[in-house]
Design a protein that fits this description.
Rossmann fold, 7-stranded mixed sheet, about 240 residues, alpha/beta
Length: about 240
């Protein structure tokens, strides 16, 4: 399965010399410290991505402008594929009090972590957690949305999943998708071919350089705790309905 190939767990490690200075400054936080989701409570583990950048606010910092754009848009439904323990799914639900969330994940532990994160932040009543999904179940999930948003980070499965000829409700949806052409060759040109007539498409490059203002809080500059260690930096595409 696509998610099994990508899964890795990263726990906080206060005894690790590499991170000792950061922990001496921030303690053992139980909530996000900086950024647009600051003060949101968080679980004690991340699966499929680095834990500390999520708490520090440097996680996928290249998406900050898009995150703020999403927060200012009246979406009523978020369908989330492959976002691990729910960093975006639950945070957007927490920040947007009328947003409903449908989260697909085949991994039982990830679904448990997502449920725990939803409970911590009092959004469980608006979060529908489902197991494995495909284009047809995605289309069904989108059917109840007046203005839906899709977030997709599913390690190459995006190319097989996001097919508007099968999931016609994609044509009324905005999409934020992390592309993995190294796992699904041709995925990015396929996205452009499928959506260029109906959507405005922005490409967002991924970097490993956290925001300067965050680094100043952490010191020394470019501290590894704020970086995610992505081996093959992919790109994001943000596609909004014309």
């Amino acid at each position: 399965m696509w998610i099994q190939n990508a899964k890795r767990s990263v726990f906080p490690a206060p005894g690790d010399n590499q991170f000792s200075e950061v922990f001496s400054r921030v303690g053992s936080p139980t909530q996000v410290l900086y950024g647009p989701f600051a003060e949101m409570k968080y679980v004690s583990e991340a699966t499929g991505s680095a834990y500390l950048p999520k708490l520090l606010g440097s996680y996928e910092h290249e998406l900050l402008r898009v995150v703020n754009q999403i927060l200012s848009t009246p979406y009523d439904l978020l369908v989330d594929f492959g976002a691990a323990e729910g960093y975006y799914a639950i945070e957007f639900a927490w920040k947007m009090p009328t947003l409903r969330v449908v989260k697909f994940d085949i991994d039982k532990r990830l679904r448990w972590l997502l449920k725990s994160l939803a409970t911590l932040n009092n959004v469980s009543s608006r979060v529908d957690i489902r197991s494995e999904g495909d284009s047809r179940s995605l289309n069904d999930a989108l059917s109840s949305g007046r203005r839906p948003l899709i977030i997709c980070d599913c390690e190459g499965y995006e190319d097989a999943l996001l097919k508007p000829d099968i999931a016609t409700n994609l044509l009324k949806s905005d999409l934020l998708v992390e592309m993995h052409d190294h796992l699904a060759p041709g995925a990015t040109p396929h996205m452009r071919e499928r959506f260029s007539q109906t959507h405005n498409i922005q490409t967002i490059d991924i970097t490993e350089h956290p925001p300067v203002e965050l680094l100043h809080r952490l010191a020394p500059v470019d501290h590894p705790a704020a970086r995610e260690g992505r081996v093959v930096p992919p790109q994001w595409v943000f596609m909004t309905v014309k």
